[in-house]
Write a structure and sequence with these properties.
By secondary structure, the chain is mostly beta strands. The chain has 3 helices and 36 strands.
């Protein structure tokens, strides 16, 4: 039968409607697929940056399968599958601290891939899991070994991670400029060092650390590289004079161009240390708002140094009855020794000032030059040696604690409780460290 023109028009519109409806269904389907893709957990590839962040767990109570829950947690530090923990995906690793504490017996060898979005490792804040995580692998093994940037370690509270009795509490060799920080870790009684920081081109931040009674509490390598350990709000001490360990030792060549080196802000060094800072390299330690309490040999020993608002206290003699130095600056037989030191708005109470008057350059026929040091608004009292280099006269800064009555053999525990804040009538107001006691420092930890 032949269709009329009207019937042909009706069929055309009918076909058009079908095509439009089909297109709409395709569009809706495509939109749904995009929405599902945006909210799905993402692909399983751990290095896919579009994957959703995952949380992994470490617990002595886990069954050591996939680390994805407390029940299936990796049960020791050497059981962590670092290849599963992706920085691209912004994964995190949570450590079980138990109800009060949980003890792990193997080394945490961090093998996270260096990346600009760091892997975060922290102690749990959940009830029944928020105790102290203890890493005690024995004195022939390191506690934690870190070999890359893109890594953040946080004990989640003061001393939330305790590394005890290891060979080195922590070794850090992170040279690339990726995010990095270690926070809220206590390290004690380690056979070689509390922390060893390798040569680095970028500062290695250590925050709210407590290091004590290690063979050397912190070693930082300064091999012609500008970086090094960068400490903020840290307490370094020995609980007994018998330990004879330094607070910070800077290793490296004493020749070559001077580098910035280790930095300390808002820290307490002491009591009980042999040297507070012992710099054996051409690096220039920089300290601001730091408190030194009665090192038995030197509070500061270096070729050059920058001190700004530092408070240094020493009894008249050390416990052995010998003199000890609040500041010891040394010369080197090369022109780099001319880099000089700065000592500003600092307070020195007790101890010997050992700063040379001149420096001899290694050129034939050269004459001695004045030792390069810049001083400004310092206060000193009961110091001996080359005292005029720091300030023109002796002025009692008037600390709140009556430190002038302390004997040479003052118990370490008593020194820990001293208050070095200034009385209202102090002639040194506006100078010295803003960190005025161990108690005050610890109150600032978060």
């Amino acid at each position: 039968m032949t269709k009329t023109r009207s019937q042909n028009s009706t069929d055309i519109w009918s076909d058009a409607r079908k095509i439009l409806m089909s297109a709409a269904m395709v569009a809706i389907s495509f939109s749904g697929a995009l929405s599902a893709s945006a909210t799905s957990p993402g692909p399983t590839n751990p290095y896919d940056p579009n994957g959703q962040p995952r949380t992994y767990y470490v617990s002595k109570n886990g069954d050591n399968t996939d680390g994805r829950s407390w029940a299936t947690a990796w049960n020791e530090m050497d059981q962590i599958h670092w290849t599963d923990v992706s920085p691209q995906r912004r994964d995190s690793l949570v450590i079980d601290g138990g109800v009060n504490r949980m003890v792990y017996r193997t080394t945490m060898k961090v093998q996270a891939v260096a990346y600009y979005s760091p892997v975060t490792v922290k102690v749990s804040t959940e009830t029944s899991h928020n105790g102290q995580a203890v890493i005690a692998p024995g004195n022939t093994a390191n506690g934690i070994e870190i070999t890359s940037g893109g890594f953040i370690l946080n004990g989640s509270k003061r001393s939330g991670i305790l590394i005890y009795g290891a060979k080195n509490g922590m070794t850090i060799n992170a040279t690339a400029p990726y995010p990095f920080n270690v926070k809220n870790v206590e390290i004690a009684h380690c056979a070689e060092s509390g922390v060893t920081v390798g040569a680095a081109h970028y500062p290695i931040p250590l925050t709210q650390m407590i290091l004590h009674d290690n063979a050397t509490n912190l070693v930082t390598k300064q091999n012609s590289t500008p970086g090094g350990a960068s400490l903020s709000k840290c307490w370094i001490y020995n609980s007994t004079y018998l330990t004879k360990a330094d607070g910070i030792r800077c290793d490296g060549s004493a020749s070559g161009p001077p580098m910035p080196g280790v930095t300390l802000n808002n820290c307490v060094l002491g009591p009980g240390l042999r040297d507070g800072v012992n710099n054996l390299s051409s690096a220039r330690p920089t300290l601001r708002n730091c408190l030194f309490i009665n090192s038995t040999r030197n509070n500061v020993s270096s070729y050059s140094v920058s001190l700004d608002k530092v408070t240094s206290f020493m009894t008249k003699l050390n416990p052995a009855g010998n003199g000890h130095k609040c500041i010891k600056l040394q010369t080197t037989g090369q022109p780099y020794g001319m880099i000089g030191s700065t000592v500003k708005k600092s307070i020195f109470y007790g101890g010997t000032v050992e700063v040379p008057l001149t420096i001899q350059l290694p050129y034939p026929g050269s004459l001695p030059q004045p030792f390069p040091i810049t001083v400004e608004a310092n206060t000193q009292f009961r110091t001996t040696g080359n005292t005029t280099v720091l300030a023109a006269e002796m002025v009692d800064p008037k600390f709140r604690s009556p430190v002038g009555f302390l004997p040479n053999i003052t118990p370490v525990a008593l020194l820990m409780g001293l208050d070095f804040s200034l009385r209202d009538a102090s002639p040194a107001a506006g100078t010295g460290s803003e960190v005025t006691s161990v108690k005050q420092l610890l109150s600032t930890f978060d």
